[in-house]
Amino acid sequence: MILSTAATVPPEATQQAVGYPSLFLLVLIGALVPVVPTGALVSSAAVVAFHQTAPFSLLLVFVVASVAAFLGDVALYWLGKRGMGSKNGSRWLQALRDRAPEDRLKQAQERLDTHGVTVLVVSRLIPAGRIPVMLACLMARMPMRQFVRGDVPACLAWAVTYQLIGILGGSLFKEPWEGVVAAVVLTLVISGAPSVWRRVRKSAA
């Protein structure tokens, strides 16, 4: 009876039962510890969902990724606010400062002064742009409510962008693994392009 029941369970159901919680946890961790390539994770999940026959697979990837990114951002901002209010700071605040070069932080502060919370949307879409803007928000003593108001559309736009990259990769290849490789490579190229451009400009100056 158990074997016959297990045989009727489609492989996609098993993939979803494991895949969505894993995607949620990895994106959440990546938002808290900015070393996990969360964009590549979302693109890869979108490729797999694109090749599935189960309804709403792509929608679930979008919801899971955007919610996890939002919760991670809010948690990191809350930890940063605690560090700003603490006499000795915190390791989370120090980690933010270590990942925000002075020139990027200055640019983020200028953009925050000019555009307000809308800069959060752009920062989520620019590789390595999220941390300097978040630190600028912390230094400006931005209230949590105001940060949340800007971070919601930022996370939605981020999830849509990287999901579209995954759909593009999935549509170009018949095999899901080929689409995953293409999506990951494209995501890494997009993520690394700004830093390469900055190095070229510095060497040319």
Automatic annotation (TrEMBL):
Keywords: Cell membrane, Membrane, Transmembrane, Transmembrane helix. It comes from the Bacteria. The chain crosses the membrane at residues 23-50, 56-79, 152-173, 179-197. It is a multi-pass membrane protein. It is found in: Cell membrane. Residues 44-166 form the VTT domain. It holds the Pfam family VTT_dom. The keyword Membrane applies. Coiled coil: none annotated. Belongs to the DedA family. This is DedA family protein.
